[in-house]
């Protein structure tokens, strides 16, 4: 099993990179585990307080559970991946059953910031993007997907997103084996990843691709 970690700031184009990889390998050989599924359940905190949580801080994530799930997959066991809602800041009662695959992509802003998780990755990727471009994407996404106003998005960006990016996410870039500037627009960077994954799949016993 090849485990690929794809990190990068909020709005850097990580999801675009991941989706382009999935388009190349559509037959279940590659699965994606989003960091976002592993945010801590905050049911013990009132909703108003939950909405102030800094999701760009490593403490908001249950890295131990994610590491344990990756170990289970490596052993050939299925896992029950949590389902997290940004609207309620709670984990759903349902989980998603994820079965082992030849290639596992773990995607998220903070995945290279945790040493234990970094050690699980065979390849560490950082998707880099200009801060203004990232902010533009964050505004569009948070309005469309998370029901926030432009003012709320900008407030959150300046209060938590930007400081956390500078403190935790940007420094984690130094652990990357591959840095992809311009995110999903960087076809050459994506081709490099595709060729690494293809090489692994072709080496896997029983694969005649």
Walkthrough of the structure:
With 209 residues, the protein is α/β, with parallel strands linked by helices. The mean pLDDT is 89. The strands form 2 sheets. Strands 2-5-1-6-7 form a 5-stranded parallel sheet, with helices on one face. The chain is globular and about 50 Å long. The protein has 7 helices and 7 strands, in the order E-H-E-H-H-E-E-E-H-E-H-H-E-H. It has a single domain (2-197), classed as Rossmann fold. Helix 5 (131-146) packs across helix 6. The chain has helices at residues 14-24, 47-50, 63-74, 115-118, 131-146, 150-169, 187-203, and strands spanning 2-8, 30-34, 79-85, 90-98, 103-107, 123-128, 178-181.
Write a concise keyword list for the protein shown above.
209 residues, alpha/beta
Strand order of the largest sheet: 2-5-1-6-7
What is the rounded Rg? 17 Å
Uncertain spans: none
CATH topology, anyone? Rossmann fold
The fraction of residues in strands falls at 15-25%
Query: How many alpha or pi helices?
Result: 7
pLDDT averaged residue by residue: 89
The string of secondary-structure elements, in order, is EHEHHEEEHEHHEH
Shape: globular
CATH superfamily grouping: P-loop containing nucleotide triphosphate hydrolases
Between the first and last Cα atoms, what is the distance in angstroms? 16 Å
